[in-house]
Prior knowledge:
The structure holds two protein chains of two kinds.
Chain A: H1 3-28, H2 44-57, E1 65-67, E2 87-89, H3 101-114, E3 121-123, H4 127-136, H5 140-143, H6 155-160, E4 163-165, E5 170-172, H7 178-183, H8 194-202, H9 208-212, H10 218-223, H11 225-235, E6 251-261, H12 264-284, E7 287-298, E8 313-325, H13 328-341, E9 348-360, H14 376-391, E10 396-401, E11 411-415, E12 444-456, E13 463-468, E14 471-486, E15 494-503, E16 508-514, E17 520-525
Parallel strand pairs in A: 3-5
Antiparallel strand pairs in A: 1-2, 4-5, 6-9, 7-8, 7-9, 10-11, 12-13, 12-17, 13-14, 14-15, 15-16, 16-17
Chain B: H1 2-9, H2 17-31, E1 41-42, H3 47-52, E2 58-59, E3 62-68, H4 71-75, H5 92-103, E4 109-113, H6 121-126, E5 134-137, H7 142-154, E6 158-164, H8 170-183, E7 186-192, E8 204-211, E9 221-231, E10 239-245, E11 250-253, H9 254-261, H10 265-270, H11 274-281
Parallel strand pairs in B: 3-7, 3-8, 4-5, 4-6, 6-7
Antiparallel strand pairs in B: 1-2, 8-9, 9-10, 10-11
Helix pairs in contact in B: 7-8
Amino acid sequence: MPLAEALALQSHGQQTILQSASKCAAASTSTLSSVSPHIAAYQPSADAQQLRQLARMCHQFSPLVGIEDHDTGSTKQNGQLPCPSCLYLDATYLGDHFGGEQQMAEQIVHFFQQHGYQVHLAIADTLGAAWAAAHYAHQQATFVPARHNPGSAPLCSAMSDGTWSSNSSYLVIDTAHTVSVLHALPVASLRISSRSVQLLEQLGIFTVQQLLRLPRNSLPSRFGEEVLHRCDQARGRSDELLTPYHPAAPFQAEETLEHPTDCLNLISGLMHRVIERVATALQAKHQGACEWICNFRCHPAELPDSRESTDAQPHTLRLRLSQSTDSVRHILELLKMQLDRHQLPGPIDRVRLRAQFTEPLSQHQEQLFVDTVISSAEQLPQLIDRLATRLGSQAVVRPQLVADFQPEHAFFYQELTANSDSANPSHSSNLPAQHPPQLARPLFLMSTPQPLDVVALAHTGPPAQIFLHQRPFRIIRHWGPERLETGWWRRRTIRRDYYRLETGCGRHFWVFRQLDSNRWYLHGLFA
Amino acid sequence: MASSEAGLSQSPRPADEPLIQALRAKLRNLETTRPDRDNQRISSGCSALDRLLPQGGFCRGSLVECLGDMDVLGTGLLGTGLLGTNLPGAGVGTFGLLLAHQAARDGGAIVVLDRDRRFYPPAADLFGIDLHDLLVIHPTQHRDMLWAIDQALRCPAVAAVWAPLQQLASQDFRRLQLAAQAGHSLGILIRDDHARGQPSWADIQLLVQPRPANTLQRTPGRRLRIEITRCRHGRHDGSLELELDESTGRMRSLESSHEANTLHLASQLAHPTPGDCSSRAQ
């Protein structure tokens, strides 16, 4: 591709990204910024966690809130189940509390907009109809081309059977119009597998109405039980249960003293007790946590001339671990390590510990002497936790290669503790290095290439002599050039000829000539 | 007296070799608290270098000092104009990392201490190191660096720790040696050659020096001279030249190939043998 064309594509691509980022922000990001798009990697676990939090918040609208699961929602894509992205709210008899179902829908949509989300909401008699309308009613025109849908009613008339508000992104469907709304929707709105959707579309069946015109008895034998079952669920002929989501009680414990103390032994004892209580609760459910938050209530020392007593201040220690654990010894060691490095503002009278981001631990055989023997699988994560606690999570990293020819961008460092921003980054970590295997890379790379004075026999040839700190070095061997022209999508094209040089005393350097300016730089050391 | 001196200078008879080996093993056991087990040996990856080492390799649970012109490693002076006559690119860091790779062949992680944030992981990948088993630590202070080395050495899941260190007090050195013993891991300390002659708690101290290669050679290998400058359990007068291929991470001795390919003309002319003559005639 010519460079000018690539640069033009780059500027066009940035505009496209801006638009798509604002459209997709509802599903993948928590905040919507119209100034600069925030493009982040898709993290299924973070999405699921956020959806659970939204479900918890939606209990203000309905006592029964469910999260879409793989059995009741989400059409399979490419044979894989996508992450749930839908919430169910039981709105039975609740409309009157909000002044009507339409007002209820408006309030829910407004609630999500306040939190930076764009939602598509539908209220219908059945879970299937509500799911179908919420997912496909707003985009039906693109899913049902007119030429493939000659017999069905136009979109606007179909939607006029319900109360459609395109501005507010919600749809309230009357009982009498449920079936007619469903008729206009594509077959994929029935929550059937992508294989069934493809099969139906190959047969020219694009809408639910076309599907329902087929003889009912023939559906299971031709398309499997799933299609008929989903049709019945959407029309209310078959029951579908809403599994309510009940947020688990937080794993936390606290200890309170009658009088504030700054005795470290006493504070350590308190911490040990709360850790034991939280760990016992976690062990009872075979779970571990990868984030532990210890909160102290401190009473700052009063000044001698101050007559007013100072208010208690919270002081928080936060542990982010490389993997979930329920080990009392390990958590206590890390908290003590953090406590040693933090100055408490004053004596404390309360310690509260909360375990977050819990997950099931792998089953292991019970030990006779609990917590005294560390298995080999736990040793490295515990080392990482110790190092990250003292040095910071950014200081304990694992390199990952990136398929990028530019040496500076050929790898990135992945933090190893939980919830760090660089965990699961957008780079693909399993990509092989792109440089040919016979070309060596230096052990040390300068973050910024250093200008180098050279003497070259030919204008575009390798150096015959280089000067390091004004000291000349004769070059006896060289390998290269290795030409790298890349990075145009970063708005700064790199055009370099790399050489590996060996000096007369046997030292090896990695230098390059900038093709644009014809200047030489030292970039790496074969140290 | 003269006869006893003459006896000392003579090499031991082959029949006495097992006895000498047994006495050396006893001395080793007296000098160290570490149990002597065969599975503690780590090959250097080069058989000629292994033969040079007193125990046929490096011991797990010990420290190895690699000395070289590594001023840039610990100080980061390159580019600031403060770098003196010592220059980098000498190959000692690469040699040390290859030892760490050898130590991790049977499993375990490699921990790299990179205070200056100049370590370039694609080079390690070329050596064949699995980056999933590589942990890079970026301490900002010297005491944090020592603490991190100590913690990593004590961890049994770590096979080797690679750390460039300029300054190392004797008590810190001893602490690291005890940590390596406790964790059964190999600590590879990359140090400037100014550390030669200073007190050391390393089992083996190697001086790594670059050597210019044959200018006709087009392979990407480089030559290094490895000299054992200190050794806890044996003689330390050995040295050899290695060729190190940084695109594959392989090392090979130049001594054997040198001996095999070189004709010692003077000695052969001085002591001609019929066999040689006949072979040349053919």
